[in-house]
Amino acid sequence: MIVLGQMLAERRRSLVWWSLSIAALAAIVGASYPAVRDVGSQIEQLVRQLPRGVLELMGAGGGIASPAGYLNSRFYSGLFPILLLVFGIMVAAWTVAGAEREGTLEPLLANPVSRTRVALERFAGTAVLLAVLTSAGTAVFVVLRGPFELASLGVGRLVAAGVGVFLLAMVFTALTFATGAATGNKGAAIAAGAGTAAATYLVFALAAFVEFFRNLRWLSPWDWFLSPSPLTGGWTAWAVWPPLLVVAAAVAVGTALFARRDLR
Questions:
Q1: Between 96 and which of 41, 129, 167, 181 could a Cys-Cys bridge form, CB atoms 3.0 to 4.6 Å apart?
Q2: pLDDT tens digits for 157-206?
Q3: Calpha distance 90→80 (Å, rounded)
Q4: 3-state DSSP assignment of residue 147
Q5: Cα 221 from chain centroid?
């Protein structure tokens, strides 16, 4: 796993800073919950006036002052996934297409190593980096759920939420990787991952208001993760198996096309 090890070694410093930033952000969100809970009745009165679709979009269907509703609305339904997506898409776009554009991929392939191995190990490295960032945010809530007064959320549900948001980010990361590997175009890779993430979120957001999008909601990875949220529903097959199938298919197709095309 030399290619994987080299990739992780090159990104260890940025990984440390990203991990610390996400952990600090999670700590700020968690430490703010007691203050929100103390004025929970006032917040709930305001929230009840919002349309049901808005509550579903916020992930606060169970009440925004409850531990699950608070973490969903403030962290897991938007902020945390977006940070993981930014990092995952950035790294995945570099793995093949970015390195090819920089001129560092061809010297690597001049060594006795196959294209398939390079692609798979670099994608595995991307997955490892994302897993570390997800663990950094999840660990804060698991370790400090007592001081944060989030003890009613079991460790199992917090871990399920961490795994769910990791798989959500991996779906769009895999699409970015596959596009870059197949085309060698870094811009196209970023556009594929970020564009698909935005489009599927739009479908998920509008599903509560528009019948047409409601019929397409099951196609959105955001729906797989948030309906229901792992913080309220625990482990669900819908949040695990569809993302895994999409990731496996995207990586297989991207790697196969990369092994057969000419370098740009």
A1: 181
A2: 999 999 999 999 999 999 999 999 999 999 999 999 999 999 999 999 88
A3: 16
A4: coil
A5: 10
Say whether 264 sits in a helix, a strand or coil. coil
Residue 2, classified by CB atoms within 10 Å of its CB into exposed (0-12), middle (13-18) or buried (19+), is exposed
| pLDDT per residue as tens digits for the range 58-67 | 665 566 778 9
Tell which residue, 182, 164, 187, has the closest CA to residue 253: 182
Residue type, 245: L
**Residue reference for tokens 């798979």:** 120
Contacts of 197 (CB under 8 A, 6+ apart): 85, 89, 172
Tell me the per-residue pLDDT of 33-76, one tens digit each, with 9 for 90 and over.
998 887 766 666 666 666 666 666 666 556 677 899 889 988 99
Closest listed residue to residue 33, CA positions, set 149, 138, 142: 149
